[in-house]
Amino acid sequence: MHGGDFNTTTIHRRYAVGLMSGTSVDGIDAAVIELIGEPGGKPEVRLIAFENTPYPAIAREEIFALFDPKVATVDRVGRLNVWLGELFAKAALSVISKAGLSQADIAFIGSHGQTIYHAPDTQTVEGLNLHYTVQLGEGAVIAARTGITCVTDFRVADMAAGGQGAPLVPFTEYLLYREDKRTLLLQNIGGIGNMTVIPAGCAAEQVFAFDTGPGNMLIDGVVERLTEGTKKMDVGGEMARLGSIHFGLLKQLQQEPYYSLPLPKSTGRERFGSTYVDRLMEYQNEYDLSACDLVATTTMLTAWSIGDAYRRFVRVHNPADRIIVGGGGGYNPVLMDFLRQEMEPMGVEVLTQEEVGQSSDAKEAIAFALLADYTLARKPNNLPGVTGAQKPAVMGKVSYSC
Ligand SMILES: Nc1ncnc2c1ncn2[C@@H]1O[C@H](COP(=O)(O)OP(=O)(O)OP(=O)(O)O)[C@@H](O)[C@H]1O
Ligand SMILES: CC(=O)N[C@H]1[C@@H]2OC[C@@H](O2)[C@@H](O)[C@@H]1O[C@H](C)C(=O)O
């Protein structure tokens, strides 16, 4: 099949590539999917190939450097934008070949890019309400290197319509997971934690979602500090398993105002990034905690924040049957145990994406391919009820291939 052939036999089957790089900056997720169904409809999705390409160390360092707005000068931002465009293009070409396909087989690429700054809350300048978000990874470069039309920069259109520009994946979760009889919570535990609520038999307007708080960001942050950079994550929850939770500190951390902010809401590194980790390191001293105690307490805080979000914002009107966990946090057994302790007493079964036959690793990359399918069909692909946008928007900017 040729991606460019829009005749009646091929129009409903096409291959697409989705690219994602999350807030943890652990590399580029690339997926090839087959979409069966009308463009911009409710397609059947088949995962053909998936690959995670770690960033070269120098690129990762530059991304982290540019999280600091004082460091992110316009020349460095411009340079990183095309640099990441090149790396995303390579990741796309590699996964296409892993799928046993050629570029000519691929109808389009949907690429999220790398968020370096996200400012969803209104800043008023001379009566103008400004909110903004910056994702890097130039679509023109991806299209030029691959010869495939590429959709990028999804979030800004939702923000222009008054939304938070996040989360965007719930639209695709509604398309792919909705059930008639069960209310589902889809919990992503990436850098940040985010929850999508899909009530049994719901319409798109009834789906809601929000960021629950830190995902792995605080755990990764403290582990990196405590091990002087030799470890980037608590692999297998090993440190947390050896520590004890300090309930006094836990209680103090639970007072963070984000948890009680009303919906819709989203958050990021601006709140739970390195400044927050600095504070956790100070608490370690103040409470005289071992390294493992601090990791255990931070891991419990992360699990608690998900349970707390469910109790506060979901349970009364949408008692859930299942919470399906995706993202790297699902690979941390201690975090998953703590989450079970939170959720099971409330009657919510805790499962991973793999346990329901999906791929946790590929989920977000798949989502951006699916969102791009809607962009190219010129159909709205945001959920105003989720992002707080005042109206539907066709998100994504198109860089056409010749
Ligand atoms: N084996 C493991 N043991 C413990 N933690 C793990 C393991 N594998 C991954 N993780 C955690 O998952 C994180 C990566 O998660 P993920 O890839 O979902 O993040 P992301 O996509 O960058 O984030 P986001 O969804 O917020 O954009 C790692 O930084 C680490 O904290
Ligand atoms: C601005 C930004 O990149 N936000 C991410 C981040 O990572 C998780 C959470 O915060 C979510 O809001 C979002 O990503 C997912 C892919 C989303 O938009 O659904």
Automatic annotation (TrEMBL):
<dbReference type="InterPro" id="IPR043129">
    <property type="entry name" value="ATPase_NBD"/>
</dbReference>
<dbReference type="GO" id="GO:0016301">
    <property type="term" value="F:kinase activity"/>
</dbReference>
<feature type="binding site">
    <location>
        <begin position="22"/>
        <end position="29"/>
    </location>
    <ligand>
        <name>ATP</name>
    </ligand>
</feature>
<comment type="pathway">
    <text>Amino-sugar metabolism; 1,6-anhydro-N-acetylmuramate degradation.</text>
</comment>
<keyword id="KW-0808">Transferase</keyword>
<comment type="pathway">
    <text>Cell wall biogenesis; peptidoglycan recycling.</text>
</comment>
<keyword id="KW-0547">Nucleotide-binding</keyword>
<comment type="similarity">
    <text>Belongs to the anhydro-N-acetylmuramic acid kinase family.</text>
</comment>
<keyword id="KW-0067">ATP-binding</keyword>
<protein>
    <recommendedName>
        <fullName>Anhydro-N-acetylmuramic acid kinase</fullName>
        <ecNumber>2.7.1.170</ecNumber>
    </recommendedName>
</protein>
<dbReference type="Pfam" id="PF03702">
    <property type="entry name" value="AnmK"/>
</dbReference>
<keyword id="KW-0119">Carbohydrate metabolism</keyword>
<keyword id="KW-0418">Kinase</keyword>
<comment type="function">
    <text>Catalyzes the specific phosphorylation of 1,6-anhydro-N-acetylmuramic acid (anhMurNAc) with the simultaneous cleavage of the 1,6-anhydro ring, generating MurNAc-6-P. Is required for the utilization of anhMurNAc either imported from the medium or derived from its own cell wall murein, and thus plays a role in cell wall recycling.</text>
</comment>
<dbReference type="InterPro" id="IPR005338">
    <property type="entry name" value="Anhydro_N_Ac-Mur_kinase"/>
</dbReference>
